[in-house]
């Protein structure tokens, strides 16, 4: 059975629709605790919960960041 190289199949963060908390931290340059707190407080607006994991909807979070003046 042939193994595939995961680096060839990796999707850039700028093209992903949903980001994990860790990916969102890296992409938006915001701390882990801050993004987690924002995701918990804005569930259904720009984040969803999948089991025990929060996912940030990247386009909606970008819109949220553009409309807010402070975090």
Q: How big is the Rg?
A: 14 Å
Remind me, CATH topology?
Molybdopterin biosynthesis moea protein, domain 2
Which descriptor suits the 3D outline? Answer: globular
The string of secondary-structure elements, in order, is: HEHHEEH
Low-confidence stretches: none
CATH class category: Alpha Beta
CATH architecture: Alpha-Beta Complex
Largest sheet: 3 strands, antiparallel
**Total of helices:** 4
Q: Numbering strands along the chain, what is their spatial order in the largest sheet?
A: 1-3-2
Look at the structure and give the mean pLDDT: 91
Distance between the termini: 49 Å
- Strand tally is 3
Structural class: alpha+beta
List the domain count as a whole number.
1
Helix content: 40-55%
Strand proportion, as a percent range, falls in 15-25%
């Amino acid at each position: 059975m042939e193994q595939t190289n995961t680096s060839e199949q990796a999707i850039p963060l700028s093209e992903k629709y949903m980001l994990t908390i860790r990916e969102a931290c890296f992409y938006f340059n915001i701390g882990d605790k801050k993004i987690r707190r924002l995701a918990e407080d804005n569930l259904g607006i720009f984040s969803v919960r999948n089991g025990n994991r929060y996912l940030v909807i990247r386009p909606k979070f970008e819109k949220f960041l553009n409309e807010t003046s402070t975090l």
